[in-house]
Write a structure and sequence with these properties.
single chain; minor pseudopilin epsh fold; rod-shaped
């Protein structure tokens, strides 16, 4: 009986070929993986927006002067009137607001104003992605801010 060497393993060339095929498939599939804003991240943006609004309301109470939070739908930003901090929203997040046209005798259309008494001009900011929407509601009487999940259309 002759005991000989049999090919029982893989050659280096076979391993390199398999790795090259796997890398090629990964390179093709990677761009197709969705990188859209997730529901928890959308909620985080809504909570950050509410935080900026609360910061401005507290600043108005502390200073005894009106403070306005600026909303810019084209630039997709919310800017604090008290600190100047800016919240930038990604392109895949729907962003719109329903705001008062007049507030305290002046035009308000693109801002939420908080008065020295803590009251505000009120409004609602809508942040959405397919299947999910969050509303940041500003109550005019108390200046209170709440984040509510609602049904997206």
């Amino acid at each position: 009986m002759r005991i000989g060497r049999e090919d029982g393993g893989f050659t280096l060339l076979e391993i390199v070929c398999v790795l090259a095929i796997v890398a090629l498939i990964a390179a093709i599939a990677y761009p197709a993986i969705p990188r859209a804003t997730s529901r928890p991240l959308l909620e985080a943006y809504a909570l950050k927006a509410a935080g900026l609004l609360k910061e401005d309301r507290n600043a108005a109470l502390r200073r005894g002067a009106m403070v306005a939070t600026q909303l810019n739908a084209d630039a997709r930003t919310i800017r604090s009137g008290a600190s100047g901090r800016v919240l930038r929203l990604p392109q895949d997040v729907g962003f719109r607001a329903v705001l008062a046209r007049q507030c305290g005798g002046s035009s308000a259309g693109t801002s939420v104003a908080f008065l020295p008494s803590g009251m505000s001009c009120g409004g609602t900011i809508f942040l959405s992605r397919p299947g999910t929407m969050f509303e940041v509601r500003i109550t005019w009487l108390t200046g209170g801010i709440e984040v509510v999940q609602s049904d997206a259309l």
